[in-house]
Amino acid sequence: MWPTLTWWPGIDDATEKTMRLSDLGEFELIDLITHHQPDAHGRLLKGIGDDCAVIDGGGNSATLITVDTMVEGVHFSLETSTPEGLGAKLLAVNLSDIAAMGGTPTEVFLAISASPDSDATIIERMVGGLQTSGARFGVQLAGGDTTATDGPLVLSLTAVGACPVDEVVYRSGAVPGDAVYVTGTPGDSAAGLAVSKGVDGVTPAYREMLLRRHLRPEPRVEAGRDLSTRKVASSMIDVSDGLGGDLRHICRASGVDMVIDPDRLPISEALGAFCDTSGQNPIDMVLGGGEDYELAFTTCKHNFAVEASFECRLSYIGTVTEGVGEVRIGTVGSSQRYEKKGFDHYSR
């Protein structure tokens, strides 16, 4: 039975027990919202449950739409990030969703909620950083909205992309026997966040690298398109809430399990050095760290990586097996279920 929130629109039964979001959890809230969503119809090809909504654009064209929100004090601090960097990261977060579906980003729409006492030059510089980064990807700022608030600065960006219908990559296409890959080196951003909060001990070069990975992530737009157009990826997701938790989303959407080999997880030299000095476990940071904005994907083409060049590192990390939607750590013959859910906005 679905839990009921007393504030939910259309709920008339005042006798239902109030359930706080901290009790429910972020992904359970999404499930609750989905419960009220009718089946996709008309132009909507895919609604809630993937990195983007997919809308029929006519012919063989699909429109991809995604939205992400960043709140000051939760997702960013202007004490550790420049306004220009903040704008670039806000864009990257959205473009990573487009990349995970195999699409090409085209336009973005920016909504700003700011206090009347806010420094307008900070917002101007933030938009400048967004525009400069957008020019690299051919993305235009096409509109948006502004509103006043007594709370912290809130930035919400809606991104639009395009992709041929038959090249859109969903989370639901993984099948037993597929190989599991990830781009780049997940875990670096989590280390960069720790460094930004004063946890240090690494060389200046490693410190700069980790901070950049956290403050200025690079969306894998080119890699996403390559994996899509070459029909390599059977499923794909952007790694934003932790690799282990995000892989579980693919597993549950596809109705499979994955066995991830910890010895194959890519660990950067900078992350290794950070863990040596901080006492952190690098495997935990690769699997559980967030805000990497890499791409994790499955493929039946086990030799594709040596047949084509990609703009970033690709690492084979595991295998898709029969199952019920779980990620397991170890080998096919000996593994344990990965328990961590990934970042949850409402957990305490």
Q: Any overview of this molecule?
A:
By secondary structure, this protein is of the alpha+beta class. It folds into 3 domains: 1-37, no CATH class; 52-167, 2-Layer Sandwich (60s Ribosomal Protein L30, Chain: A); 171-337, Phosphoribosyl-aminoimidazole Synthetase, Chain A, domain 2, CATH 3.90.650. Helices cover 32% and strands 25% of the residues. The protein contains 11 helices and 13 strands. The strands form 2 sheets. Strands 8-10-7-11-9-12-13 form a 7-stranded mixed beta sheet. Strands 1-2-3-6-4-5 form a 6-stranded mixed beta sheet, with helices on one face. Strand 1 and strand 2 (53-56) form a beta hairpin. The longest helix is centred in the N-terminal third of the chain and has 18 residues, at 83-100. Mean pLDDT is 90; it is low at 1-15.
Main attributes of the structure:
six-stranded mixed β-sheet, 3 domains, seven-stranded mixed β-sheet, single chain, alpha+beta, 32% helix, disordered N terminus, 348 residues, Phosphoribosyl-aminoimidazole Synthetase, Chain A, domain 2, 60s Ribosomal Protein L30, Chain: A
Round the mean pLDDT to the nearest integer and report it: 90
Largest sheet: 7 strands, mixed
Number of strand segments: 13
Give the second-level CATH assignment, the architecture of the largest domain: Alpha-Beta Complex
**Name of the CATH first level of the largest domain:** Alpha Beta
State the oligomer: single chain
- In what range is the share of β-strand residues? 25-35%
- As for the CATH topology of the largest domain, it is Phosphoribosyl-aminoimidazole Synthetase, Chain A, domain 2
| Poorly predicted sequence stretches spanning 5 or more consecutive residues | 1-15
Order of helices and strands: HHEEEHEHEEEHHHEHEHHEHEEE
Total number of distinct structural domains: 3
